[in-house]
Amino acid sequence: MYAGNKAMREAFSDALVDIGAENEKIVVLTADLTDAVKVTAFKNAYPERFFQMGIKESDMIGTAAGMAIDGLVPFATTFAVFATSLANQAVRVSVGYNQANVKIATSHGGMCVGADGATHQSFEDIALMRLIPGMTVLVPCDANEAYKATRAAAEMNGPVYLRLGRIPTPVITSAETPFVPGRAVTLRDGRDVAIIAAGMMVSTALEASDRLAGEGISARVINMHTIKSLDKDAVLLAAGECGALVTAEEHSVIGGLGSACADLLVRESPVPLAMVGVQDTFGESGEPEEILKKYGLTSSDICENVRHVLNKKTRRDL
């Protein structure tokens, strides 16, 4: 497996080649982004199962749906913003309505897309995919999980949205770390507050937990790699045992992981909850560190929100 810093899309590339060797029904489509979404290796290994669709995202999704209905297992690849905006109607009708066995695998999810800026950043993709009935939404936290998530998506029957980032991120899981869609992984135990994170924000949550420990705050860290179907048991257990939650995601606070947790908690176990994510705004070009700091997606921001919910928790106890 991987170590150090590694881009999730590169692990996705490795996984595609491996599962392609095991299953001749695996096919890959892309919309003029062969190198950027890292499907060149699959193209070279299995040219007869690779389809370059050009800048026609909706056509790519519709074609993938047809392939799936005919018994193939297509991975349709593009940037997250294109799959969920330009191709939204095709995703909704051709894939969702038919419950077609299509794997929509995207790169450049979130903020860290460098000079591409606001037009290529995707803050709303998870929200849009959550709305598609029957769609599984996977957001791995590092390269090892990206590899496992790709294999898991291929084995699942039904539509899957797989969200990958562009930049190298810290590898925080190992070959032994379990990956089961719909089942969260507790990476660090804690009793005072639970930080539920997804994607690249999981490593940031671990950093925040370390900082909070220096203040005497015991923070549980949960890797919620599946946004839909959400691991309700993990959320409710954390709510019951910790009494306060903070979610962290490289996505809008509207409609993503935080909203999914809030929807559950308000019905089943109301506790103080804060959401770390992008507010109701568009992004801009910039280096990842600059962008994450400006838009409030750092370990300091998580720590600040932890203190906020702990204050609410204390007032409730009084």
Features:
alpha/beta; single chain; globular; five-stranded mixed beta sheet; 14 strands; seven-stranded mixed beta sheet; about 325 residues
Rg on CA atoms, Å: 19 Å
Helix content: 40-55%
Mean pLDDT: 96
Stretches with pLDDT under 50, minimum 5 residues:
none
The percent range for strand residues is 15-25%
Helix-strand sequence? EHEHEHEHHEHEHEEEEHEEHEHEHH
Distance between the termini: 49 Å
Summing up helix and strand content along with how strands pair, one would put the structural category as: alpha/beta
Main sheet: strand order: 3-2-4-5-7-6-12
Which overall shape is indicated by the principal axes computed on the Cα atoms? globular
Specify the biggest β-sheet. Answer: 7 strands, mixed
Please report the number of helical segments.
Answer: 12
Oligomer: single chain
Structural summary, described in words:
- Helix content is about 40%, strand content about 20%.
- Helix 8 links the parallel strand 10 and strand 11.
- Helix 3 packs parallel to helix 5, helix 8 packs across helix 12 and helix 9 crosses helix 10.
- The longest helix is centred in the C-terminal third of the chain and has 19 residues.
- The chain is globular and about 60 Å long.
- The chain starts with a strand and ends with a helix.
How is this structure best summarized?
The chain has helices at 8-22, 40-45, 57-69, 80-86, 88-97, 125-130, 143-155, 201-213, 232-242, 257-268, 288-294, 299-317, and strands spanning 5-7, 26-30, 50-52, 73-79, 103-107, 136-138, 160-163, 168-170, 185-188, 193-197, 219-223, 226-228, 245-252, 273-278. By secondary structure, the chain is an alpha/beta fold.
